[in-house]
Amino acid sequence: MIIGLTGGIGSGKTAAANRFAAEHGIHVVDADLKSRVVVEPGKPALSYIVDRFGDAILLDDGNLNRAALRERVFAEPQERQWLEQLLHPLIREEIMTDLQSARSPYALLVSPLLVESGQNTLTKRIIVVDVPEAMQLARTVQRDAVPEAQVRAIMQAQAQREERLRHAHDVLTNDSDLAALHAQVDALHQRYLKLLESQA
């Protein structure tokens, strides 16, 4: 069983996923990490990106300057669409390969664009990490040290909170502390084990 885990930027997806992995031994596949793998130096996607945006999109060591790229694509919607069409199929391939190697009772696919990218078609259930938008904004500005306007642009590109919640089978409310989030994760894990038992 593959369970999707999603939430807006700064919602606490990573904290939730880490708890599933560290405490319960669940195999976690992170779509964001896969999106980095497909643009590593030497990968075809990186040369396409350089052809389109120029060498200024690279760091001195030849790696992709993700901050510069993010600035470009969130300022121009058609550039973001071009980038998504290039990367989404490649990322999906990486995700599939990783998921097939899972040995835990179920696997977790963590993706900020789970619904928007169609990755939710790979999953049986969807967990949404939910947090008030003001908190999301404040956490991200503080964590990434980026301007509020840039965070707002990213939030606009992601599914709106209501839209995400509409797809949710399970919701983790992350408006308190880490202990509260962990307790919710632990309870969900037990529920999934029971669900798997009943399906066996």
From TrEMBL:
CDD domains: DPCK. InterPro entries: Depp_CoAkinase, P-loop_NTPase. One of its GO terms (molecular function) is ATP binding. One of its GO terms (biological process) is coenzyme A biosynthetic process. HAMAP family: Dephospho_CoA_kinase. Catalyzes the phosphorylation of the 3'-hydroxyl group of dephosphocoenzyme A to form coenzyme A. PANTHER family: BIFUNCTIONAL COENZYME A SYNTHASE-RELATED, DEPHOSPHO-COA KINASE-RELATED. This is Dephospho-CoA kinase. It comes from Halopseudomonas aestusnigri.
